[in-house]
Specification:
This protein is an alpha+beta fold and 158 residues long. The chain has one domain: Glutaredoxin, CATH 3.40.30.10. The chain contains 6 helices and 9 strands, in the order E-E-H-E-H-H-E-H-E-H-E-E-E-E-H. The chain has helices spanning 27-31, 48-59, 61-64, 78-88, 101-105, 147-157; strands spanning 12-16, 22-26, 36-41, 68-74, 94-96, 109-114, 117-122, 125-130, 135-139. The strands form 2 sheets. Strands 2-1-5-4-3-8-9 form a 7-stranded mixed beta sheet. The protein is globular and about 40 Å long. Belongs to the peroxiredoxin family. BCP/PrxQ subfamily.
Length: 158
């Protein structure tokens, strides 16, 4: 269980970089030289809520600053991420977690209810991590509207 003030779990995942090329990523590499890492977990590429959230992060990259790395994580494949990035003009990495190991470690995989039906899936959430790997803020159940503004406020106040 991740807690504010503690180190977050390490990971190594495949994904795509901001230019759409496949690449392997680790927590250590993403934190290198950064003040903060924003890890946001989302259910699926090219769905309405996930597209809105990704585009909000895309549009706020300049406001986040050059010492903040934003990374999206979902169970989708590299090829799906590439299509999503290209279609939406995303300017940050997207990581693939098809086995849900990272999602589980970061409390972003769990029981969800939709129209009375229960199933396991990605719980839309975000972690703000300091450059030393310490969790600064955790949003466990994100509502897309206004979420990026919350992240910006947290960074400004940290």
């Amino acid at each position: 269980m991740i807690k504010v003030g503690e180190k977050v779990p390490d990971f190594v995942l495949n994904g795509i970089n901001a230019q759409g090329q496949a690449q392997e990523y680790s927590l250590k590499d993403l934190l290198k030289g950064q003040r903060y890492l924003v890890l946001y977990f989302y259910p699926r590429d090219n769905t309405p809520g996930c597209t809105t959230e990704a585009c909000d992060f895309r549009d706020q990259q300049e406001s986040l600053g050059e010492k903040v790395t934003t990374v999206g994580v979902s169970p989708d494949s590299v090829s799906t991420h590439q299509k999503f990035r290209e279609k939406q003009g995303l300017n940050f990495p997207l990581l693939c977690d098809p086995d849900h190991r990272m999602l589980e470690a970061y409390q972003a995989w769990g029981l969800k209810k939709l129209y009375g039906k229960e199933s396991m899936g990605v719980v839309r959430s975000t972690c703000l991590i300091k450059g030393d790997g310490t969790l600064v803020k955790h949003w466990p159940k994100v509502k897309v509207a206004g979420h990026v503004a919350q992240v910006l406020e947290a960074i400004a106040g940290a």
